[in-house]
Design goal:
The chain is an alpha/beta fold. The protein has 16 helices and 28 strands. It has 3 domains: 210 residues, FAD/NAD(P)-binding domain; 116 residues, 3-Layer(bba) Sandwich (FAD/NAD(P)-binding domain); 118 residues, Enolase-like, domain 1. Helix 1 runs parallel beside helix 9 and helix 3 runs antiparallel to helix 5.
Length: 563
């Protein structure tokens, strides 16, 4: 397959380097647009430039080149170099990287391209949260008056909000599909399963072979026993994202990422929320100090109450004029505690791996609580503890870190390995975010985890903090409520964890996550320059607040050069 790409630049804005613009030996650069893979916008990346020409006319420079696509497999005894089962974010990331590496690639999808994240998760939920953020701002009369603004009563159209979420999911799904088609990835429709070593079945009776296989089948909402989901009054996140109704009073079972984000949406749209949490505190997965501050800002001032240390042992949908009934029992003693009557209940108790029917028995692989066991290189481990040759599993299905971008990173790591470059992903460098208003983000260890590690390994832990109240940009936005916290080793400057609560926290975390990934130490990164006035200075001040005993740099020279 042949494809072509062209770029045009205004001569007035283009500075030409002091070297030939194109030569037979020049390596093509992989262009990026605004941090997104350009393939999503219909640009096909070149595998190898076969021709290159530059013409200047009308004060514009035009660049064009022909490029090779997804051709024959490197080993002709297989149909493909790589087959990926599951076309979610993880499978998509692996497929694009595989084609860039020259692998003939196919991806199998039994549902719709994009998986949970695009269709029933990250993407539509962010559309709803965008609405809730604007509603909160418009409804906050004191906040608007502080800017000198006067706004009449804010309202919303439920169907219009729902359509915004649905339309965004459709747009991103189409972008992912088109990007793979443009690169020549074969998209095979049907449920995929492993028939045996290097052999996959999809659809009714289609069989293909591949040198390497990646399982990327994702996850589904987890519903505990005793809970009856009807999709109307007792729902999962899959149903909630359709926003078919906005109940007056909704109980949310679970106060993790999913529960917190939906509480933000529902309360902004006028609902009252009751959290039901099995552990003794809300937001148990977050750093305790961040959880305490977030509760003070995200829960206490809003129409939210909560029950902690209890299980929802039975939930019955509303019917025949009766409300949703929720039976609560003590999480430890299992004694009956209370009965709630609400308009709706959202089950946000996490997600379960989607691994049934994959033919794992054909290769002697037994799941562990539904998860496919893998090693640090995502290689699948069989029932005897041995590696299954040429078989990998990424994303939610392996349970290492159930985040869409973690799945993509794992997929890229696998492709690096199968193309001859050993690569082990550092999962402690992968950031996470909760898109409430304000946002919460984190990377690495929490303070309790860091102190436990320090006690076992015999080193000291220090804490640095900075407030959004000291940041000019945050104050200009009247958003001074927030905290950034870093856990680190004072003896060598190693960053163990960073946690942020505040305006655009999800965007601010990446400087810290990249520092952890690259092994950059505090004594080096604190010398970096940040534009003023920007929110990035929150992280800058955090690094500068750290006290490292040894001022000498310990960052490898190769990493310094990269930074």
């Amino acid at each position: 397959m042949q494809s072509a790409f062209s770029l045009s630049f205004s001569q007035s804005s283009l500075t030409l380097p002091n070297r030939p613009l194109c030569s037979p030996n020049a390596a093509p650069r992989n262009l990026r647009f605004c941090g997104l893979r350009r393939e999503a916008f219909g640009f096909s990346p070149p595998k190898q430039l076969n021709s290159c020409r530059f013409q200047v006319k009308n004060r514009r420079i035009e660049v064009s080149a022909a490029a090779g696509g997804n051709g024959a497999p490197s080993n002709k005894s297989f149909d493909y170099d790589l087959v990926i089962i599951g076309a979610g974010v993880g499978g998509h990331g692996a497929a694009l990287h595989a084609v860039e590496k020259g692998l003939k690639t196919a991806i199998i999808e039994g549902d719709v391209v994009g998986g949970t994240c695009v269709n029933r998760g990250c993407v539509p939920s962010k559309a709803l949260l965008a609405v809730s953020g604007r509603m909160r701002e418009l409804q906050n009369e004191h906040h608007m008056k502080s800017f000198g603004l006067q706004v009449s009563a804010a309202g919303y159209d439920r169907q219009g909000v729902a359509d915004h979420a649905s339309n965004l999911a459709t747009k991103i799904r189409n972008n992912l599909t088109n990007s793979m088609k443009a690169l020549g990835v074969d998209i095979l429709t049907g449920f995929g399963s492993v028939l045996g070593p290097q052999k996959v079945k999809y659809g009714k009776d289609n069989v293909i072979t591949a040198k390497d296989i990646i399982i990327a089948t994702g996850s589904v909402p987890f519903v505990p026993k005793g809970i009856e989901v009807d999709g109307k009054t007792v729902i999962t996140s899959d149903h909630a994202l359709k926003l078919e109704s906005v109940p007056d009073w909704i109980a949310i079972v679970g106060s993790g990422y999913i529960g917190l984000e939906f509480s933000d949406v529902y309360t902004a749209l006028g609902s009252e929320v009751t959290f039901i949490e099995a552990l003794d505190q809300l937001m148990p997965g977050f750093d305790p100090e961040i959880s305490k501050l977030a509760q003070r800002v995200l829960i206490n001032p809003r129409k939210i109450d909560y029950h902690t240390g209890v299980f929802a042992s039975k939930i019955t949908p509303a019917k025949d004029g009766r409300p949703v009934m929720i039976e609560l029992i003590d999480a430890k003693t299992k004694e009956h505690k209370d009965t709630l009557e609400v308009d709706a209940a959202l089950i946000a108790t996490g997600r379960a791996p989607f691994t049934n029917g994959l033919g794992l028995e054909n290769i002697n692989v037994a799941t562990q609580r539904g998860f496919i066991p893998v090693d640090e290189r995502m290689r699948v481990i069989d029932g005897n503890g041995k590696l299954v040759p040429n078989l990998y599993c990424i994303g939610d299905a392996n349970g290492k870190l159930m985040l869409a971008h973690a799945a993509s990173a794992q997929g890229i790591s696998v492709v690096e390995q199968v193309t001859g470059r050993d690569h082990v992903l550092n999962h402690l460098s992968i950031p996470a975010a909760c898109f409430t208003h304000p946002e919460i983000s984190m990377v690495g260890l929490t303070e309790p985890q860091a102190r436990e590690k320090a006690e076992k390994e015999g080193f000291k832990v220090s804490i640095a903090k900075t407030s959004f109240k000291a940041n000019t940009k945050a104050l200009a936005e009247n958003e001074g409520e927030g905290l950034a916290k870093m856990i680190y080793r004072p003896d060598n400057g190693e960053i163990l964890g960073v946690h942020i609560f505040g305006l655009h926290a999800a965007d601010l975390i990446h400087e810290a996550s990249n520092a952890i990934a690259l092994g950059t130490r505090i004594q080096d990164i604190k010398l970096a320059v940040h534009a003023h006035p920007t929110l990035s200075e929150v992280v800058d001040e955090l690094f500068k607040a750290a006290k490292v005993e040894s001022p000498a740099s310990t960052t490898p020279q190769s990493v310094k050069a990269a930074v």
